[in-house]
Design goal:
The radius of gyration is 21 Å and the shape is globular. It is α+β, with helices and mostly antiparallel strands. It has one domain: Cytochrome p450. The chain contains 18 helices and 12 strands. The relative contact order is 0.18. Belongs to the cytochrome P450 family.
């Protein structure tokens, strides 16, 4: 394929559901046009950045490259009306000086020391879900039955939401991130995205009211009653905080857990290696995150005329940072298309980099390591029980169906 055909993967949700196509295309771009202009009638123009070092350099400079007004790739109609169409303001939409102030609100909850306090509880939950796996009688859909629910339970409990609301939050998350997937989208109408956002808005508006009247010791109360710059947090910022944590806070981890198991089943020698040496679980989960790269892209906009790899980029133009491509960069990773549970070093950028480095990185690692530390020793035999399907998306995604057949100890 030529470079323009290759660049089409960034505007085609189906490409992210076809790993072979996507990685073949981005390999062409890394080799022949690593800074490539993309023009598509549905999207405002942008430059696709596919090499690891360029992604890192842009992410590192949050003064030259800012998130607003275009934090992620979306259809032209949405981008032109973004302030009116998306009635919240989340961390991913913020730049300095606001971003560090608002990020600080929940920072202590997600720092290593804060996450370590959850270690025993997460280990208990990991055991609960592996025990549940055993109850399926040797066959299940690992994504839908296990991977989608375990990190959901963790993050919703952290927020302090009632357990009866967890399925609703899962459905809304899948409608939001799966808006381009016929199996997951609410409907095919142009209004579907806004309908989902409105449901989030209404739910979290009630939560703010409740936590301000009846504060507890959960993260939802911390956010609702935060006073950045000495004043109570605005409703749009609080709801944006909730939506970010209640969606990306579990969906990305679910994708890594399920996509990681799929990789282990595609590379049975790596499953045997991990089973023989459980001490590899931490590096194995890092490799799963690199391999899946659940967040497909974020965008940055230049605040001044500049260049990337010698290609001029004008002030106001936007770049798309392709994390899956960066994580297969031949200049950084030895045998990047090989799944290696012992890969070290592993300089993946699946959690982003710089000022917007993923807030939940340490929690995701703890969850992933706990589940696989519990799962691998208890599996005696495991194989795919049908075709694996990946989400059609432009932003966040991974497997949506992972049928397995297994025997447990």
């Amino acid at each position: 394929m030529n470079v323009d055909e290759a660049a089409g993967v960034f505007t085609d949700p189906r490409a992210y559901a076809d790993n072979e196509r996507f990685y073949a295309a981005t390999a062409v771009l890394r080799r022949e046009s690593p800074v490539h202009r993309v023009d598509h009638p549905r999207f405002l123009p942008f430059w696709a950045i596919t090499r690891h070092d360029d992604v890192m350099e842009i992410a590192r400079d949050s003064q030259l490259w800012i998130n607003a007004p275009r934090p992620a790739l979306g259809p032209r109609s949405q981008r032109e009306g973004a302030p009116e169409d998306i009635p919240i303001r989340a961390l991913v939409q913020m730049d300095a000086p606001d971003h560090p102030v608002y990020r600080h609100i929940s920072a202590d909850w997600f720092k290593p020391a804060g996450v370590r306090k959850l270690a025993d509880r997460i280990a208990e939950l990991a055991k609960r879900y592996v025990d549940q796996l055993a109850e399926f009688g040797g066959e299940c859909d690992f994504f839908q039955d296990i991977a989608a629910n375990y990190p959901l339970y963790v993050i919703m409990s952290l927020l302090g939401l009632p357990e009866e609301d967890f399925p609703r939050m899962l459905k809304l998350t899948q409608e939001l991130f799966g808006a381009n997937d016929a199996d997951l989208a609410r409907n095919t109408e142009n209004s579907a995205f806004m309908e989902t956002m409105l449901d989030f808005f209404n739910y979290f508006q009630k939560l703010i009211t409740d936590r301000r009247a009846n504060p507890t010791d959960d993260l939802a109360s911390v956010i609702a009653n935060a006073t950045p710059r000495g004043e109570l947090i605005g409703e749009l910022e609080a709801i944006g905080y909730y939506v970010l944590i209640a969606t990306a806070g579990h969906d990305t981890t679910s994708s890594a857990l399920a996509g990681g198991l799929h990789a282990l089943l595609q590379y049975p020698d790596q499953w045997r290696r991990l089973a023989d040496d459980p001490g590899l679980v931490p590096t194995a989960f890092e490799e799963m995150i690199r391999w899946v790269s659940p967040v497909k892209q974020f965008m940055r906009t230049a605040t001044a005329d500049t260049s990337v790899r010698g290609v001029p980029i004008a002030k106001g133009e936007s770049v798309l940072l392709s994390y899956p491509s960066a994580n297969r960069d031949e200049d950084v990773f030895e045998h990047p298309d090989r799944f290696d549970v012992g890969r070290s070093p592993n300089r993946h950028v699946a959690f982003g980099f710089g000022a917007h480095y993923c807030l939940g990185t340490h929690l995701a690692r703890l969850e992933g390591r706990a589940l696989y530390a519990e799962l691998v020793p208890r599996i005696r035999e495991i194989e795919l029980a049908g075709p694996v399907e990946y989400m059609e998306t432009l932003f966040v995604g991974g497997p949506k169906k992972l049928p397995i057949r297994f025997k447990m100890a």
